[in-house]
Amino acid sequence: MKIEEIKNTVKTQRISAHSHVKGLGLDEKGTAVKVCSGLVGQEDAREAAGIVVELIKAKKMAGRAILFAGPPGTGKTAIALAMSQELGSKVPFCPMVASEVYSAEVKKTEVLMENFRRAIGLRVKEVKEVYEGEVQEITPCETENPLGGYGKTISHVIIGLKTAKGTKQLKLDPSIYESLQRERVEVGDVIYVEANSGAVKRQGRSDAYATEYDLEAEEYVPLPKGDVHKRKEVVQDVTLHDLDVANALPQGGQDILSMMGQLLKPKKTEITDKLRKEINKVVNKYIDQGIAELVPGVLFIDEIHMLDIECFTYLHRALESQIAPIVIFATNRGRCVIRGTDDVVSPHGIPLDLLDRIMIIKTVPYVKEEITEILKIRSQVEGVALDEEALALLAEIGSNTTLRYAVQLLNPANQLAKVYKASVVDAKIVREISELFYDAKQSAKILAEKRDKFINQQ
User: Fold this and answer.
1) Which SUPFAM superfamilies does the protein's record reference (predicted)?
2) What is the pTM of this model?
3) DSSP 221
4) Which of 29, 38, 385, 447 is the most exposed place for a label (fewest CB within 10 A)?
């Protein structure tokens, strides 16, 4: 019996809280469809988010901020992630939680600026001399070790490339062989090798191999046209943070200090403002010359009320800078004290001067019908079979407690169904599982009724 191992299969991923979100679910006119792309309800918020997406695509939104404000469990994070899906992979989307700024290694404003720079992309277009084609052969040629001994070293590597017009054999440096191994290049892959630097880029698998396996998750590309040796426009997408890190890291040398630095675990170092200004100058120069194009992305900061007054004042300056992304905030707080102050109360815990320059999108609690639809979607994503009665009961529980609590009962109910050897989760199983687990309201009620049984802090 012949068994073949399929290397390129879809990676198994954990089902997260927003795995079902595929987009904003808008029609051609920008009107929200009630149930579409994994989102349910929140039509006004989704339509407002759709307008923001169009403004981002038109590059008329940079340096501005949006705030999603609404009670817990009303889809604020889901809509923000749907916006990233609509923008596509080419537009940088950097999600973070406000509490991330309180790092022991780096100061708060540095963490904010790092994420700001991660959310700004630079698309560099260069015309390079390359060798491009489908790999026909990779033959490393060995020679005796010049230092003596039994080992052998690779002197050069022969690589055969094929295009629609012809084939060519190249004799390449051994360092390029290492690049081929890093990129996991095999026979049948379409690659290009830069003539000047020797950099290797794997573009995908040749579409001649497209029917080899049914379970391939590989990206297939057509056989390149023209000659193997050609001039090609190469487009590279990097973020400003990538440029910052590349220029901030020490390049190393032969002295003992640089060797020790490579051995020791590198610590998180702060990138200076002076370095960032120098990089901005070079970036602006490339943009003026038409070599590069700035792609303002999205920085999503959840739980914005966790930032303190120092961070809010820093956000003012960062939003006003020439190179700034679109910033999306989210919060579930009403009127509360601004962190870092003693008694300054403000809506959403955000200072009024910053709140004044933010466009606010509100989200509202889900009604029972919408909870039913969300539970249907989540049960399909998580592979839980529910009958109609169980779905109605879960929706009832969700409307009386919270949507999150109802969604969290799905997998425990499915596990209990397996114990009972039932193929479908029914209402009896849902009732039993809801009695085993408490929601926040039930827990608070028990704490109030049996206060004397618990250790309470005055």
Assistant:
1) P-loop containing nucleoside triphosphate hydrolases (SSF52540)
2) 0.69
3) E
4) 29
pLDDT digits (tens, 9 = 90+) for 65-92: 889 988 888 888 888 888 888 887 778 8
Sorted by where each starts, the structural domains of the chain and their CATH numbers stand as 35-119+297-362 (3.40.50.300), 124-237 (2.40.50.360), 240-287 (no CATH), 368-449 (1.10.8.60)
Predicted confidence (pLDDT) per residue in 333-352, tens digit: 888 898 888 888 889 888 88
What CA–CA distance (Å, rounded) separates 366 from 190?
49
Q: Which of 313, 337, 315 is nearest to 324 (CA)?
A: 315
Length of the chain: 458
The DSSP call for residue 95 is E
**What whole-number distance in Å separates Cα of residue 289 and Cα of residue 268?**
34
CA separation for the pair 187, 159 (Å, rounded): 10
Q: Which of 427, 405, 420, 413 is nearest to 382 (CA)?
A: 413
Q: Is 428 helix (H, G, I), strand (E, B) or coil?
A: helix
> Cα–Cα distance between 19 and 377 in angstroms, integer?
10
Q: How far is CA 5 from CA 8, 186, 432, in A?
A: 9, 16, 44
Q: Among residues 48, 52, 30, 42, which one has the least CA distance to residue 297?
A: 52
8 Å CB contact between 61 and 296: yes
Side-chain-side CA neighbours of residue 160 (13 Å): 9
Backbone φ and ψ for 416, nearest 5 degrees, come out as -65, -35
